[in-house]
Specification:
mainly beta, single chain, 4 helices, flat, 5% helix, 583 residues
Length: 583
C-alpha cells in the first residue's frame, strides 16, 4: 500500500467526523461506446452505489483505490485492498483518489457515511459524502479521550471556559456528563470540556470544581477547541481541472445531510459549514480557494471572523490564508450551471432525490459574524438602497418629467432595528399613499416599521392621484446583524481605582465585530466615552486579555463603573445565575 506523496501531505492539514464508504471503480470495455467517459463514470458510480450499502457509521468500505491510502498513526494492521474491505474511520489518516483516465478506463469514487455532529442516539442518520475524480482528503481529528464525570452542584454549561462566556445550558446536580479535556484560563480557574449534544458544536465548558472527574486523566486542550467525531474536520483539495472528456464531472465532493436532521456541522479547509441538504465542494490545487455551490436546502459558511448564508443556486469561494486557516467567505454569486450539470450522474445516486436548480439571481450579501442567526442578504431590486453608516439618509429622488411634473421623494431613517419611512409627492397633493410589507398595509405619508436584527425587507409604496395616475416604488434594505440606535447616546465612564493594572476597552459595531475603544488604568487614568443603544461594551485585562466586565446598552441611562473593585455590575453582562453554586 502506497502512502500519500510529500506534496499531498503538504496540503493536507484539516479535520471532519465521518464514517464512510470508499470505492473506486474501473470501467473496462473491449468495445467502448462513442462517449467512453460517460461509460466510465456510469459504471464507477453504479459500483459505488451497490458495493458497500451495509457500511455502518464511522466505517469505511474499500473498493479498489487507484491512488493511495494512509493509515492513521499507530495503525499497522490496516487491511484495505479489496472491494468490500471494512475499516473503522479512525484507522484511516488520508486518501487520494484517481483522476479520470480515459486510456485505462479508471475513475476514483469514494462514498462515505459520516456522523458529523449528529447525536449518538440517532445511529441510523448519517451524512453522505461522495468524493470523485482527482481528489485528496486527510482528517486531523485524532482519537479524543472520553471520561465519565458527574456534577456535584447545579452547573451552567458555557460556550467558553470562563464565567463571562454565554450560558448554553444548565445541568442539574448529580447529572452524568462526558469529559474530553481540560484547560486553565487567565484567572487561574480550571475548566473541563464536555460533550453537549444539544448545542451544535457538541462542545460545552464546565467549571472543574463543580464536577466529580479524574482531571489527571484528561488532556490539556485549547480554550477554543471543539469536540469532533472522526473526520468531522478535514483538509481537502482537487485537481486543477477537468480531463479532456467534455462530459466528465468536475473533480470534487458532494455532501448531503439526512432528511429531518436540520443543519449539520463540519469543517473543510478551515471553513465551518452548517449544511441542511446538498452542496458541491471543489478546491482546485493552486487556486488558493475552496468553492462551495449550494444545490438544495440552506447553508451557512463561517470563517475569517465572518459568516455568509447561501440559497440554492449560489456559490461562494473562500480564500485559503494558510494550510489550516481560511479567510472570510467571498460574495455569493450564481453557481456555474455547466459545472453543476456535469455532476448530475453523481447526484442521482445520493440517498435523497436532488433536482438541480437554475443559478440564483445575482445579489450582494453582507458577511456576518458566526454567532449571529443566518439571514440572507438580498440585492436591492430598485434604485432605492439602504444608506450606509449607522443612521439614515435621504433616498434618491425621482426625476420630474417636464411633461408630467409629478414626483415622489422617499426618505428613510433607521434607528437600530426600527426604520422610519416618509414620502413627499407633488406638485399637487396625492389622493392616497399606501405602504405595504408582506400582507400588511398602512396609509399615510409616514410609517414606522420594527424589524428583527439581520432582517431583509422589501417595502412597497403606491402613490395615487385623483385623476387615476399611480406611481409605485420598492424600498429594499437589510437591518445589520447588531443594529445600533445612534440617535440615542449614553455617557459611559470607567473609573480606575489606583492599582497598577492596565485595561483595554472594546465595543461592538453593527457587524457584531469587536472594535477597540481605548485604554485606561495604569498610565492612562479613567476612561470616558459615549455608548449607543444596541452596543455591547467590555473591558479586558492586559496582557491576559480576559474579560473583567461587560454590558449591553439597552437604554440611555449613564454607565459608571469602577474597575477593579466591588460593585462592578458584572450581572448586566452575564446570564442570570441561581442562588446556588452555578458558574
Amino acid at each position: 500500500m502506497r502512502r500519500l506523496t510529500s506534496m499531498f501531505l503538504k496540503y493536507a492539514r484539516r479535520t471532519l467526523a465521518i464514517g464512510f464508504t470508499l470505492l473506486t471503480a474501473a470501467a473496462v470495455a473491449q468495445n467502448p461506446p462513442a462517449d467512453v467517459c460517460e461509460t466510465i463514470v456510469r459504471d464507477a458510480l453504479q459500483a459505488a452505489n451497490t458495493a458497500c450499502l451495509g457500511t455502518a457509521r464511522n466505517q469505511v468500505c474499500y473498493g479498489n483505490i487507484l491512488g493511495a491510502a494512509s493509515p492513521a498513526d499507530g495503525v499497522s494492521d490496516l487491511i484495505f485492498q479489496d472491494v468490500g474491505d471494512i475499516a473503522t474511520l479512525a484507522q484511516i489518516k488520508a486518501l487520494e483518489l484517481s483522476p479520470l483516465n480515459e486510456a485505462d478506463h479508471e475513475w476514483g469514487v469514494a462514498l462515505m457515511q459520516i456522523q458529523a455532529n449528529l447525536p449518538d442516539t440517532l445511529p441510523g442518520q448519517n451524512v453522505t459524502f461522495l468524493l470523485f475524480g482527482d481528489t485528496t482528503v486527510e482528517q486531523t481529528v485524532g482519537e479524543q479521550v472520553r471520561i465519565d464525570a458527574a456534577t456535584t452542584d447545579p452547573s451552567n454549561m458555557r460556550l467558553g471556559p470562563n464565567t463571562t462566556s454565554p450560558v448554553i445550558g444548565s445541568v442539574p446536580e448529580g447529572s452524568a456528563v462526558v469529559a474530553t479535556g481540560k484547560t486553565t484560563n487567565a484567572a487561574g480557574e480550571e475548566w473541563v470540556r464536555v460533550r453537549y449534544e444539544d448545542y451544535r458544536t457538541q462542545t460545552g465548558w464546565m467549571l472543574a470544581s463543580l464536577l466529580d472527574v479524574e482531571l489527571d486523566s484528561l488532556p490539556d486542550v485549547a480554550s477554543g477547541s471543539l469536540n469532533y467525531n472522526p473526520m468531522q474536520a478535514f483538509y481537502f483539495r482537487t485537481g486543477i481541472g477537468r480531463t479532456t472528456c467534455a462530459t466528465a464531472p468536475v473533480n470534487g465532493v458532494v455532501v448531503q445531510t439526512p432528511q429531518g436532521a436540520g443543519r449539520v456541522n463540519f469543517n473543510v479547509n478551515g471553513i465551518n459549514v452548517a449544511l441542511g441538504s446538498t452542496v458541491f465542494i471543489t478546491a482546485p490545487e493552486g487556486s488558493g480557494s475552496t468553492c462551495l455551490s449550494l444545490i438544495t436546502g440552506g447553508m451557512e459558511l463561517s470563517s475569517g471572523g465572518a459568516s455568509l448564508d447561501l440559497v440554492p443556486g449560489e456559490r461562494s469561494c473562500v480564500p485559503v490564508i494558510e494550510e489550516d486557516k481560511a479567510g472570510p467567505p467571498g460574495p455569493a454569486v450564481p453557481f456555474d450551471a455547466t459545472e453543476i450539470a456535469s455532476i448530475a450522474a453523481v447526484l442521482d445516486i445520493l440517498p435523497l432525490t436532488v433536482e438541480i436548480p437554475p443559478p440564483a439571481p445575482r445579489r450582494t450579501p453582507t458577511p456576518r459574524p458566526p454567532t449571529q442567526t443566518p439571514v440572507p442578504a438580498v440585492q436591492p431590486t430598485s434604485a432605492l438602497s439602504e444608506p450606509g453608516g449607522g443612521g439614515g439618509s435621504p433616498l434618491p429622488t425621482s426625476t420630474p418629467d417636464p411633461v408630467n411634473p409629478r414626483f415622489i421623494d422617499v426618505n428613510r431613517n433607521r434607528r437600530g432595528a426600527v426604520v422610519d419611512f416618509s414620502v413627499t409627492a407633488g406638485p399637487d397633493a396625492p389622493s392616497s399613499i399606501t405602504w405595504s410589507l408582506s400582507d400588511s398595509t398602512q396609509s399615510g405619508p409616514n410609517v414606522t416599521i420594527f424589524f428583527g436584527a439581520g432582517a431583509t425587507y422589501s417595502v412597497g409604496l403606491a402613490v395615487c392621484w385623483s385623476d387615476g395616475e399611480c406611481r409605485n416604488r420598492t424600498v429594499d434594505g437589510q437591518i445589520p446583524p447588531c443594529p445600533i440606535d445612534f440617535s440615542q447616546a449614553a455617557p459611559i465612564q470607567l473609573i480606575f481605582d489606583g492599582s497598577t493594572q492596565r485595561y483595554q476597552v472594546f465595543k461592538t459595531d453593527e457587524a457584531c465585530a469587536k472594535t477597540f475603544a481605548g485604554n485606561f488604568g495604569d498610565g492612562f487614568g479613567n476612561f470616558g466615552g459615549t455608548a449607543h443603544i444596541g452596543e455591547t461594551w467590555e473591558v479586558q485585562e492586559v496582557p491576559a486579555m480576559n474579560v473583567v466586565w461587560g454590558t449591553f446598552v439597552g437604554d440611555a441611562s449613564p454607565i459608571t463603573v469602577t474597575i477593579p473593585g466591588t460593585g462592578a455590575p458584572r450581572s448586566r453582562f452575564s446570564l442570570r445565575q441561581s442562588a446556588h453554586t452555578r458558574r
